[in-house]
Amino acid sequence: MTDTITEQATAAASGAAATEQFRNKQRTETAGVDTRRVDTLVSELLAAAHDIIRRHKVTYAEYDVLKSWLIQVGEDGEWPLFLDVWLENVVEEVAGENREGSKGTIEGPYYIPDAPILPAEATLPMRDGEEGTPLLFQGQVTSVDGTPLSGATVDIWHADNDGYYSQFAPGLPEWNLRGTVIADDQGHFKIHTIEPAPYQIPTDGSCGRLIAAAGWHAWRPAHLHLKVSAPGHQLITTQLYFQGGSYVEDDIASAVKPELILAPTPVADGDGSEVTHDFVLDKG
Ligand code: MBD
Ligand code: FE
């Protein structure tokens, strides 16, 4: 027997990393929430739960299952995953309601700030022979008034060809498929990467158990995550999907919008595909 041990990705390990990441980045404005607002929101949330219990005559057995499941979500560190999959899309909808320019969508649990800074044309950090269809993702960042945004930043992160994110699964280089691309003086960027695979919610954790118990599927369509920003403009957090890909019409995290679906075309004189997609930022 050889001693080559490939560490398996586990729900608890990626959950612990996501929980730690969230604690590091927690938005500053969460510091003080007004008492009356807490009263209103929590009272209404509890009233909705009470109503469900009465209407469906929830039993003590079911109450105990809920209690033990909630305890387990915490132990698995899966609160970031649970919340970002099943609630964040509505928070984002409300947050983006009055913003002009390109559509945003949810951030999800796997963003890490301060990825390596890369020039306007760059290849994302990846392993030698990184698996997956090569993808050239290029475009321009402009303001809502049409002005090209010099020095805009395109912060990009995505899963690999197995659906794993660096720093949330074992065995991947620290910054694999993550980078902070600085656009040129006309806001143009050209990013060489690979197409990510669809993402499956870990089946061995509490979110996976909920999905199995409810008979749902566990998948998000393949996606690129982005944070696009420029001086004097509002940052947008978004994702881009691939036309015709699995689960584009049925994302477990309800985070697909029609404007966010890319249609890459095969590269004429090489491997893989390419797509041009521009970002328009609102002033702020
Ligand atoms: C992901 O990759 C993701 O983007 C979201 C929103 C939730 C879980 C995994
Ligand atoms: Fe993701």
Automatic annotation (TrEMBL):
Keywords: Dioxygenase, Iron, Metal-binding, Oxidoreductase. Coiled coil: none annotated. SUPFAM superfamilies: Aromatic compound dioxygenase. Its cofactor is Fe(3+). Its EC number is 1.13.11.1. Residues 9-19 have a biased composition (Low complexity). It comes from the Bacteria. Residues 137-165 form the Intradiol ring-cleavage dioxygenases domain. The keyword Oxidoreductase applies. Residues 1-31 are annotated as: Disordered. InterPro entries: 1_2-CTD_multi_dom, Catechol_dOase_N, Cchol_dOase_actb, Intradiol_dOase_C, Intradiol_dOase_core, Intradiol_RC_Dioxygenase. One of its GO terms (molecular function) is catechol 1,2-dioxygenase activity. Pfam families: Dioxygenase_C, Dioxygenase_N. Residues 22-31 have a biased composition (Basic and acidic residues). PANTHER family: DIOXYGENASE, PUTATIVE (AFU_ORTHOLOGUE AFUA_2G02910)-RELATED (PTHR33711), INTRADIOL RING-CLEAVAGE DIOXYGENASES DOMAIN-CONTAINING PROTEIN-RELATED (PTHR33711:SF7). Belongs to the intradiol ring-cleavage dioxygenase family. This is Catechol 1,2-dioxygenase. The lineage of its organism: Bacteria, Bacillati, Actinomycetota, Actinomycetes, Kitasatosporales.
